[in-house]
Design a protein that fits this description.
The longest helix is centred in the N-terminal third of the chain and has 19 residues. About 40% of the residues lie in helices and about 25% in strands. The chain has 10 helices and 12 strands. It comes from [Clostridium] ultunense Esp.
């Protein structure tokens, strides 16, 4: 439970951080004054976006290879760090024409065997960052997802998460059971105590909810382990998306700006911001990587892995990319 959350911006946030990061940094560095000129430009963009939204032309493809080559989708990964391991990996993809945002949560225990890395723990995807950095994780995720291109990455630290949640007045979730866990050695120390039931969680409680896996001495926790935690995170993000779309997004992003690490450049962010106009709640989907948990014996040690299913992943991607 010594997880140090560096990301939570999933699905919706993957995109809005991308688009407003560039916009906000540009305004911040150049100290723009919002006036009638900007308002008129925004009005024209809104009008153009409305037309584009009502009459989208969605291209179909004959294969995933063709789709990956010719599609204008924007793809990225979101990483949550536990020291040198990726505790959370999420693939997110945005279609600028349809405004559709799809996310795939990738369990940290996903089995992937790299040549020369033969120990049991080294065969989990969460170990790749420590050896190969962000580029290594991007390659691994692309390999699992049939070679899909990955254009960017985003990280956000725990303070940024708290600031964003508090800036919108908390998030309502259904807590499935009493979550209680203590670890004074964690950095920062953990003291999770969230009662069962429907409630609004502030920034601190939201972090606790997202980080929780099981109680002390392996008591309690999710019946299906990390997959249960992923489902809880997705429930949280659905609720978060519903609420945050009612706020002025640049203000929300501003609260987490200093805590974000990304390779998205200024002009990329500015370009994405125009494409995002008109997006709404129904444009988001959240799924978990197709596969199943399995015990494997490696070098005499039995470990729990998540075994992904390529044929099912192929079907998911063909649906996302409109392959006929």
């Amino acid at each position: 439970m010594k997880t140090f959350w560096k990301v939570f911006i999933v699905s919706f946030i993957f995109f809005f951080v991308a688009i407003f990061l560039g916009s906000y940094s540009y305004l911040k560095s150049n100290e723009y004054r919002l006036g009638s000129n900007i308002s008129s430009k925004e009005s024209r963009i809104d009008e153009e976006s409305s037309i584009e939204k009502t009459t989208p032309t969605i291209r179909s493809y004959s294969s995933l290879a063709e789709a990956f080559k010719d599609s204008n989708r924007i793809n990225l990964i979101l990483l949550g760090m536990e020291d040198i391991r990726t505790d959370t990996i999420i693939f997110a993809t945005f279609n600028p024409k349809s405004k559709q945002v799809n996310t795939i949560s990738i369990p940290r225990d996903t089995y992937i065997h790299r040549r020369g890395y033969n120990q049991g723990e080294q065969r989990k995807i969460n170990a790749i960052y420590g050896d190969h950095g962000v580029e290594g994780v991007k390659k691994a995720v692309s390999h699992i997802l049939e070679g899909v291109p990955i254009h960017h990455y985003i990280m956000i630290d725990y303070e940024g998460v708290e600031n964003i949640i508090d800036s919108i007045g908390g998030v309502e979730v259904m807590v499935p059971f009493h979550m209680k866990y203590e670890d004074p050695t964690a950095d920062p120390p953990l003291n999770i105590d969230i009662k069962e039931g429907k409630q609004v969680l502030n920034g601190k409680k939201s972090l606790d909810f997202l980080r929780y896996r099981k109680g002390n001495n392996n008591q309690g926790g999710y019946i299906d382990g990390d997959l249960g935690r992923i489902k809880a995170q997705q429930q949280f993000l659905q609720s978060f998306t519903d609420k945050v779309l009612t706020y002025r997004l640049p203000i929300v992003i501003k609260k987490g700006f200093d805590h974000i690490n990304t390779d998205i450049k200024l002009f990329e962010g500015l370009a994405y911001s125009r494409k995002a106009l008109g997006i709404k709640r129904d444009d988001f989907t959240f799924i978990t990587l197709p596969g199943k948990p399995e015990l494997k014996k490696v070098n005499g040690k039995i470990l729990s892995y998540f075994i992904f299913e390529p044929s099912e992943i192929n079907k998911v991607l063909e649906e996302i990319y409109n392959v006929k």
